Amino acid sequence: MIYTIVRNGFLALRRDRGALILSFILPIAFFTIFGIVFGGMRATGTPRVSVLVVDEDRSPVSERLVRSLQHDPALLVSTRPEAKPGARKDEPVAPDYTADTAESAVKQGVAPVALIIPNGFGANPIAFGPATDREVISILQDSSDPVAAQVVAGMLQKAVMTSLPDTMAEVGMKFFDRASGGLTRQQRQSVESGISMFRDQLQRRDQQGGEPSASSDASGFVAVAIRDVVGEKKRSPMISFYAAGIGVMFLLFTASGAGASLLDEAESGALDRILSARVSMTTLLAGKLAYCTLLASTQLAIMFLWGAAVFHLDLFSHLPGFFVMTAATSFAVASFGMLLASLSRTRAQLAAIATLIILTMSAVGGSMFPRFLMPEMMKKIGLLTFNAWAIDGYTKVFWRDEPVSHLAPQVAVLVGSGIVLFLIARLFARKWEYA
Amino acid sequence: MNTRAPANESRIPLRIESVAKHFGEITALAGVSFEVHERAIFGLLGPNGAGKSTLIRSVVGRVRPDSGSILVFDEPANTAAARAAMGWVPQDLALYGLLTCRENLQAFGRYHGLRGKALHEATEWCLEWAGLDDRADATVKALSGGMRRRLNLAAGLIHRPRIVLLDEPTAGVDPQSRNRIFEMVEGLRNQGTTVIYTTHYMEEAERLCDRIAILDHGRVIADGTKEELVAQSFGGRTDVLMRFPAAHPGAAEWTLSHGGKLEDGVAHFSLARPADIASLLEAANGAALEIIDVTLRRPNLESVFLQLTGRDLRQ
After folding, report:
1. Which residues of B fall below an 8 Å CB-CB distance to A?
2. Considering CB atoms only, which of A269, A270, A434 is closest to B61?
């Protein structure tokens, strides 16, 4: 009896291609995609942190420090804005970042961190132990990526160690002179006393919290101050990111489900009946698209309202940007749902295709894992997905407080691709028009 | 209510000429021609795969014929005027399962361009006609099979078409519901609607249809009233069915020698006159054959179909 039940199960599975794909092909496909996306990082090294470097000092010491940072494999250093793709060779090179332009660039999301080497830094770059008479390097950070600033701060100390050994020796001698006054017995005691004092200081720091302060580090060789320039007033930094990321992923599933109503109607014969009336295929598809767009918009609105109520997302002071992004995202996602439905012949086939494509898009597009933590190549590949454009747009609205006009690239891509996908869906929907 | 297009009595509701359709190497329709006249129920009879549904779908624009022409009140079938004049009730329950009866009718009414008061009146008329006025707010999923069938019919009539195509409207319903559907279809004819009725139930065609076309292998092999079809195939002949006990020795040989054929212990004879039965019984008595019962009957549509195609209608 059990044998018969098992046999029937396998026979049915073998004849249900959708279930077969979901059971065996999809996990392997997804495993492979994730392996390539995230496992591939090993081959290309740890993802590099983008940092904008401003050298206000222009001293030999600061220039060597910048060169050292540029050679650090963990950092992707820019000292001036990148030339736009397609720019002519004879176009003038953009001027170097200043403290102001670098701060603006961080606010616009060009890089998560900017490092400002102040005037006078070269004269007194490092110190052993606490010192108040030296210039402090500023690190401006976008707090949506808190790791980046810490990486840059650490790499800065390392760069000093490796790039300024003579400075260290010089400063070390000054320290030695000041602490010992010569290699007499008394001097040796003084050195020991100085070392002891340094040890005490380290011990005290350990007792106070184990790690140097996150926002400033004046006890390292180089004095560093970290300052939030984006999101400093946000109560829940990542909420808008996750609302958009998770929202778009589920929107894609909703859209494919709404598109599946076409397949249901085709199967029940309702589609034939509708098309035999005064309704054309284009009208029918447009109607489904409108329904799906409204459904997706409602879904996003509920998601962000929940974010506002529970996670203090500042929805109500960003309503224009929210409406623009929600309309564009919902339209694009709805068109995508129409296309998936028109490509599929059965609901099972649609479920398999939709799950594979949506999970892949969500992984690559940053719905599951922030794109700013991905390798450069993956960041670029992510731009092929709705998720990335939608998340970028919502981030501009909620995180960077950018005006609606700055959403033009995101809206253009989402609406443009939505139109193209709808036209392709219409083409494939010809199979339902007549036999 | 009166939402009908102005009728031109001189025009023929449906004229099909040399319609052919192939799906790959399969010939679904091989040059079908016939006309359907107004205020009649026209039966389209044929076994499964004969081409009935393809023909109906060609008329309503869901299949594009390879050749031939289909005119609805002299308008090509794919024009807006022809579509407005036609109502189609597909064989499947083409309804929205999660909508109520009223919501379904309103949806299909809107698809046919009805709005406002006209839509409201049409919906109420359909609910009453289908006997669903007391279940108007029940979802389709909550209806019995017969009720769903009736709603399916009503949804095809919401715009009050002058010609209605019913594709096997009684498939899968119980005898009581079937009778109800027959009454509804007869009511349509009495109100002046032309009905094209496809079925493979002979008794339905016999009861309802004024004229019948028999379709087989994509061709019309006979067309006329029931009486004309029987007369064409059998003239004035009468069928006699004579039952013998099981494995009666000599029955098969005797039946064959008297121009009949024996199937499952029943001998079938076709007699020129009913009175000829007397000599047949006398011959059986002379051959010492034991007869259990004898039936005398006029040939019916089933006999016609068997005669014309060599197959039973439901094969």
Report:
1. 23, 57, 60-64, 80, 83-84, 86, 88, 90-97, 108, 111-113, 155-156, 159
2. A434
Smallest Cα distance from B65 to chain A, Å: 9
Instruction: Report ipTM for this prediction.
Output: 0.80
Nearest Cα neighbor of B150 from B188, B200, B112, B201 is B188
A251 in Cβ contact with A329 (< 8 Å): yes
Contacts of A270 in chain B (CB under 8 A): 94-96
CB spacing of A276 vs B93 below 8 angstroms: no
User: Tens of pLDDT along A218-237?
Assistant: 455 677 777 777 766 665 55
Q: How far is B61 from chain A (nearest CA, A)?
A: 6
Question: What is the reported pTM?
Answer: 0.74
pLDDT in tens, B169-226: 988 888 888 888 999 999 999 999 999 999 888 888 888 999 999 998 899 998 999 8
DSSP letters, chain B, are ---PPPP-TTS-SEEEEEEEEEETTEEEEEEEEEEE-TT-EEEEE--TTSSHHHHHHHHTTSS--SEEEEEETTEETTSHHHHHHEEEE-SS--S-TTSBHHHHHHHHHHHTT--HHHHHHHHHHHHHHTT-GGGTTSBGGGS-HHHHHHHHHHHTTTT--SEEEEESTTTT--HHHHHHHHHHHHHHHHTT-EEEEEES-HHHHHHH-SEEEEEETTEEEEEE-HHHHHHHHHTT-EEEEEE--TT-TTHHHHHHHTT-EEETTEEEEEESSGGGHHHHHHHHHHTT---SEEEEE---HHHHHHHHHSS-TT-
Q: Are A165 and A68 in contact (CB under 8 A)?
A: no
Residue in chain A closest to B107 (alpha carbons) equals A274
Minimum-distance CB partner of A270 among B61, B80, B94: B94
**DSSP strand pairing (A137-142 vs A216-217):** unpaired
